[in-house]
Design goal:
This protein has 220 residues and is an alpha/beta fold. 34% of the residues lie in helices and 26% in strands. The chain contains seven helices and seven strands. A seven-stranded mixed sheet has the order 3-2-1-4-5-7-6, sandwiched between helices. The chain starts with a helix and ends in a 6-residue tail after the last strand.
Length: 220
């Protein structure tokens, strides 16, 4: 599940119906809006677009829903490694003409390898990164654990000091917190605070929201 060809195949197969349907990993926007929207309000800056990245968006409606429901002006980038997923979402949004809550908000879909975020973004340029299942897919792949660690480090590099990464996952906190705390620390280079909240139970599975916030590095 860490290979581009796998996802291209998946989205090609799922697009062979006449009617487009968003595919949601775990759950949709309504299940997590109370984690995302208050965080955006807390980061608001007068006359500035909040920059949001939906990382590994696939054909989820999560990014478009943030764009649609945020009363604050946001620039939402929905990024995926699969150009098939990106094209499907571009076509869907064009056809449905989604209107933003704020007339200043922007929405875009880009093909992007999330292990190389620093090629697309400047350091300390994003306010919020949302990861709904992307890290889970990597961690559960044979060769994906190294990539998952690289993605986390890339996120911390491009987030503002006031920014946050939200990971939505069904992995137990005993395992995920330890992994995040280990991978997010690099002496003299990066550091982060890590927290967790329970999202709730769906179809017998408990889901969590892991929040990772960059912390100033203490130079030795």
């Amino acid at each position: 599940m860490d290979k581009k060809a796998t996802w291209d195949r998946f989205y090609t197969e799922s697009s062979r119906t006449n009617t487009f349907k968003n595919f949601e990993w775990f759950f949709g926007f309504d299940s997590v809006r109370d984690f995302i929207m208050p965080l955006l309000h807390a980061k608001s800056q007068p006359d500035a677009l909040l920059r949001v990245l939906d990382m590994g968006c696939g054909t989820s409606a999560l990014g478009p829903c943030i764009y649609r429901h945020s009363p604050l002006p946001v620039r939402v980038t929905c990024a995926d490694i699969s150009p098939i997923a990106v094209r499907l979402m571009q076509e869907h949004v064009r056809e449905t003409a989604i209107q933003p809550h704020s007339c200043s908000s922007q929405l875009e879909f880009v093909e992007l390898d999330c292990t190389q975020l620093d090629k697309h973004y400047d350091s300390s340029s994003l306010d919020l990164i949302v990861d709904k299942g992307t890290t889970d897919a990597l961690l559960r792949s044979k060769e994906g654990k190294g990539k998952a660690g690289l993605v986390l480090k890339q996120c911390l590099k491009v987030l503002r000091s006031s920014g946050s990464l939200l990971q939505f996952s069904d992995e137990d906190p005993d395992a995920r917190l330890l992994w995040l705390e280990t991978e997010a620390q690099e002496r003299g280079v990066m550091a982060a605070d890590v927290g967790v909240q329970e999202v709730g139970e769906l179809r017998g599975v408990c889901y969590y929201c892991y929040q990772v916030t960059p912390r100033p590095v203490v130079q030795q």
